[in-house]
Design a protein that fits this description.
single chain, alpha+beta, two-stranded antiparallel sheet, 2 helices, elongated
Length: 55
């Protein structure tokens, strides 16, 4: 895994993306390593308040 080898303690070098609900930047976490592409929300609160999709 590339992330494990390149991380040297500098959090600025980690990938990040915006939360789908609040727009806050989410920085990559080791717990999200296996499913980083599927992570959409920064917290449980944002997940609960996710925007509804029109039918």
């Amino acid at each position: 895994m590339a992330q494990k080898n390149t991380f040297k303690g500098n959090k600025q070098s980690l990938p990040s993306k915006p939360c789908k609900t609040c727009g806050r930047d989410m920085t990559w976490r080791k717990a999200w390593a296996k499913n980083w592409e599927q992570v959409l929300y920064c917290s449980d609160a944002c997940r609960k308040n996710k925007p509804s999709t029109p039918l």
